């Protein structure tokens, strides 16, 4: 029985807590991230946490995370009034604050498609990424998976300082010489769930264990071991392997099935990963509300700067909101932003209509086939009800769809969820038709009923057939896996596009990598669709998204880091960008899936990564921390705002540098619409020779658009053992009277430096803007 004094003490503490919380009952509490000047801590407090708890929080339990590596400060539950009061009373200590935001995940054969070959080139020279540590920020990992075996791996690198955190379904024994560390960050997510009325823990593990599958997939894409007899229900069968099969994996679970990924948790993961000793960070997480925040209000940009400034390469997804313009996310110039392309493998499924017309589609359906039997075909959208055309929950009339194949429009709900709606209403199959925004871009899914995904124009054909036929009918023929598809790569229609919505002087995305129909490891916690009702189990799954493209570049960075340990993150990005290919496997310019036309740097950046060439790029465009600070000065940030990002004071006094002079491997020339006639821009770039010490490079200007002239001075640069760096000036002149821009408002060209062995290519963008 509890003794009276102890009971009295507990009751007193409870009363204090209730009094503390009741004073804010009139206002909702929210999670805020506060940036603090660490030098202002009074000496009376032994740690920053004690200072934060005593002076800035209404109660110590309201503090969620403290940050002291990539960021100085804390996240806490506060009311807006309390926040305003704190900012007013502690204006010298509190440098900035921002509301915690929810982010979204951006969801084999691809290593060969990147140019990697067993016992050759970069794989051989880098020892498959051995001892490089990749930190994966995602939904966790499934540790027992074959892809994470540590067989024949050496000891954990001695520089590793991380931990293996235990929890639901995950113990310290689940780490090994492959998964060398694992942490989970849930306080921001849990606080949000509590604030909106509770959380559901039944499907989630409060541990680094993956209940979603996304994290297992991305981790194995970056660094999965060779796994024989891999497939997804027979599709894409073969040997699965990551880009850097011997690299070590450190898991940082920041995304949760029920609530998403919160900035406060992501920032805490950056803080931990830097201290743990990772070499590469892979973050397949998008921009949250679809609007790009300034860098000083973006914890991913802030955390990434803290990592990159310490020599850690950060790869991020470009987003899945293409083909809309200005849809690219993760825009900070210190991050490498990756779009998605196809590979030369497909999973065809043909829709055969009652009139004999055959329509091409794709599918990963693996259940009982239709065996050529024709079924009645119906389009619920004929009724004019939008929810029915989209096959939303409870929108279909069983009397109308029972025993029939149903055509559903893509959008508003998960593609696989639409098939479940059709199944519940008694439908026997589904044709999933793209809308105009999706174009002809096709994504395979492991549907629960016989389904084929078709493009927008094919969808119109099927709907026209339904309208004209007295008794429309169809069947679906599934044709398995096809290899050697041409053309490939093609820029995926969903891949985020430029222009850069924050600073158009920096071209984003930087490049593209395989991101369509990628086979990789999967969790044992959910079925391949991720639907609660999907009880199937699969060791591997096939997914598409810039989430899948990002870990390809993370793995590539691990290989480059192993082969060139002295290269900076900017040098590694430059090596991948300047050697990227702009040609497909048919020798033609890479095309854009959404239009069928040649892709532009707004969609593919510098091109598709080619790792065999990236290993030996010849020249690199390097960038220092000071260069990034100069860039931030150039875009008009104040010294105090820059300190939020860089953790140290800046001095932007005097003439500010031009943001376009950041030593980036691409060039964006912005000309004013208010000026007529000739306009001129000059860009300074510096290259570092990382090839043979004695070399002469000559420049070639390529594909100059109409109304533009490009000149480079000097036209040749000479390197010796004593001279490894050389600068040059690119002058872009535009004549507004003859300038021809495409439908994105831009024109594109390139310059290339070559010594006869290497070709170092940089895209050039020309566009116009209207002054404010």
TrEMBL record:
This is Uncharacterized protein.
């Amino acid at each position: 029985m509890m003794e009276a004094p102890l009971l009295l003490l507990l009751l007193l503490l409870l009363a204090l807590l209730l009094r503390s919380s009741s004073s804010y009952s009139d206002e909702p509490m929210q999670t805020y991230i506060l940036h603090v000047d660490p030098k202002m801590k009074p000496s009376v407090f032994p740690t920053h946490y004690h200072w934060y708890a005593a002076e800035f929080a209404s109660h110590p339990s309201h503090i969620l995370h403290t940050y002291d590596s990539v960021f100085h400060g804390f996240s806490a539950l506060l009311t807006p009034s309390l926040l305003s009061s704190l900012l007013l009373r502690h204006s010298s200590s509190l440098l900035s604050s921002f509301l915690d935001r929810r982010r979204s995940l951006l969801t084999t054969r691809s290593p060969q498609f990147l140019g990697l070959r067993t016992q050759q080139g970069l794989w051989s020279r880098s020892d498959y990424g051995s001892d490089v540590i990749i930190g994966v920020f995602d939904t966790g990992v499934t540790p027992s998976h074959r892809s994470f075996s540590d067989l024949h791996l050496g000891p954990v690198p001695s520089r590793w300082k991380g931990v293996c955190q235990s929890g639901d379904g995950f113990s310290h024994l689940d780490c090994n010489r492959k998964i060398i560390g694992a942490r989970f960050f849930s306080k921001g997510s849990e606080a949000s769930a509590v604030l909106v009325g509770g959380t559901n823990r039944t499907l989630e593990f409060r541990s680094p264990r993956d209940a979603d599958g996304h994290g297992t997939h991305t981790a194995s894409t970056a660094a999965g071991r060779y796994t024989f007899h891999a497939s997804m229900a027979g599709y894409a069968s073969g040997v699965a392997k990551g880009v850097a099969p011997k690299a070590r994996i450190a898991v940082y679970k920041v995304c949760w099935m029920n609530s998403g990924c919160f900035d406060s948790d992501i920032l805490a993961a950056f803080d931990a990963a830097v201290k743990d000793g990772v070499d590469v960070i892979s973050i397949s997480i998008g921009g949250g509300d679809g609007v790009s925040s300034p860098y000083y209000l973006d914890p991913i940009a802030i955390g990434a700067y803290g990592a990159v400034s310490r020599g850690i390469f950060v790869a991020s997804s470009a987003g899945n909101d293409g083909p809309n313009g200005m849809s690219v996310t993760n825009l900070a110039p210190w991050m490498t932003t990756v779009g998605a392309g196809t590979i030369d493998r497909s999973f065809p499924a043909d829709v055969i209509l009652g009139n004999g017309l055959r329509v091409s589609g794709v599918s990963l359906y693996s259940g009982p086939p239709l065996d050529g039997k024709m079924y009645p075909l119906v389009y619920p959208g004929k009724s004019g009800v939008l929810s029915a055309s989209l096959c939303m929950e409870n929108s279909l009339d069983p009397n109308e769809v029972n025993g029939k194949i149903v055509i559903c429009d893509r959008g508003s709900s998960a593609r696989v969820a639409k098939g479940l709606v059709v199944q519940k209403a008694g439908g026997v199959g589904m044709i999933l038709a793209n809308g105009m925004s999706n174009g002809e871009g096709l994504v395979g899914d492991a549907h629960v009923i016989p389904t084929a995904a078709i493009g927008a124009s094919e969808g119109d054909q099927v709907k026209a057939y339904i309208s004209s036929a007295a008794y429309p009918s169809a069947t679906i023929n599934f044709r398995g896996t096809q290899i050697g598809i041409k053309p490939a790569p093609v820029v995926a229609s969903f891949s985020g596009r430029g222009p850069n919505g924050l600073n158009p002087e920096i071209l984003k995305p930087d490049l593209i990598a395989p991101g369509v129909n990628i086979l990789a490891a999967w969790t044992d916690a959910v079925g391949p669709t991720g639907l609660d009702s999907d009880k199937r189990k699969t060791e591997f799954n096939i997914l598409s998204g810039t989430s899948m493209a990002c870990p390809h570049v993370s793995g590539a960075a691990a290989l480059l880091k192993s082969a060139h340990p002295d290269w900076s993150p900017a040098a590694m990005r430059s090596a991948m960008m300047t050697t990227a290919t702009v040609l497909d496997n048919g020798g033609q310019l890479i095309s854009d899936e959404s239009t069928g036309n040649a892709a532009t740097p707004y969609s593919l950046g510098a091109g598709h990564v080619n790792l065999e060439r990236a290993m030996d790029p010849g020249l690199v465009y390097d960038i220092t921390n000071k260069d990034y600070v100069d860039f931030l000065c150039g875009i008009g940030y104040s010294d105090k705002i820059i300190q939020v990002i860089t953790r140290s004071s800046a001095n932007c006094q005097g003439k500010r540098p031009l943001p376009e002079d950041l030593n980036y491997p691409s060039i964006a020339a912005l000309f004013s619409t208010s000026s007529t006639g000739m306009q001129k821009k000059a860009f300074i770039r510096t290259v570092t020779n990382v090839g043979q010490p004695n070399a002469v490079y000559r420049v070639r200007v390529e594909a100059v658009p109409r109304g533009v002239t490009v000149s480079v001075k000097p036209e040749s640069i000479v390197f010796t053992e004593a001279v490894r760096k050389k600068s040059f000036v690119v002058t872009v002149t535009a004549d507004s009277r003859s300038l021809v821009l495409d439908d994105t408002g831009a024109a594109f060209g390139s310059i290339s430096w070559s010594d006869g062995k290497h070709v170092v290519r940089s895209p050039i963008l020309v566009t116009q803007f209207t002054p404010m």
